Amino acid sequence: MDANNKDKNLFAERGFAYSLNACQKSCVQKHIYKLCQCCDVGFPCIEDALQRSTGIMAREDNIIPICNTTVFKTIKCIADIEEDFTDNKLDCTKNCPPACEETSFSMTVSSAHWPTRDYRQTLLSQHGLDQNVTQPLEAAERSFLKLEIYFDSLNVGKVISQPAFTWNKLLSDIGGQLGLLLGFSILTAVEILELVVMDLGLGIGLRPLLRR
């Protein structure tokens, strides 16, 4: 799948690569624009991409209005489309194949009180607060935050999808089956021919005896 396919991925106008989620959101937004004549703020609203991919031009100055969620008709229109998407009636799943390459990160959050009792005085001294703070621990906990972001693991997993049945395997199986059937056919013909010859030979050998 082309990462810059702007018909399936409206986010491509903003430099984002193709992903299954981006394609499905773009699909829902295009249906909302077609049927409700507006943009839902919960999905990408890039006017040029929407008008090009749907072939429907905006009514005024190429600006697509944001859906007014205070109007019952608009709310119902959006709700019906989202329900159709949930029931897989929009073909968004069919038209949005998985990305050929995709990077994802699992996020975990852990927290603890910081700074520790042994470190708080050093921290306050570094920022010139030790002379003016009457409650150093509480002040440090309210005034400072330590954030560390790191990879949980440096392992790399690679998933390769391959067709379960290729043309080479199909032709090989067909050739094997034909060879097997042809082999049985030849063996059967030889057996029948051998039986006929034996019957004829036996008949010729017994004919003089029968005449006596």
Could you explain the architecture of this structure?
The protein is mainly alpha-helical. The chain has 3 domains: 10-86, no CATH class; 112-148, no CATH class; 170-212. Helices cover 49% and strands 0% of the residues. The protein contains 6 helices and no strands. Helix 1 runs antiparallel to helix 3 (72-86). The relative contact order is 0.07.
- Category from helices, strands and their pairing: mainly alpha
* Whole-number total of structural domains: 3
Beta-strand percentage range: under 5%
**Assembly classification:** single chain
Low-confidence stretches: none
Average pLDDT: 75
The count of DSSP E runs of length 2 or more, i.e. the number of strands, is: 0
So how many helices? 6
Distance between the termini: 90 Å
Helix content: 40-55%
How do the helices and strands line up, and which of them pair or pack?
Layout: H1 20-36, H2 47-54, H3 72-86, H4 117-126, H5 136-143, H6 167-211
Protein name: Amiloride-sensitive sodium channel subunit beta
Keywords: Ion channel, Ion transport, Membrane, Sodium, Sodium channel, Sodium transport, Transmembrane, Transmembrane helix, Transport
Membrane topology: Multi-pass membrane protein
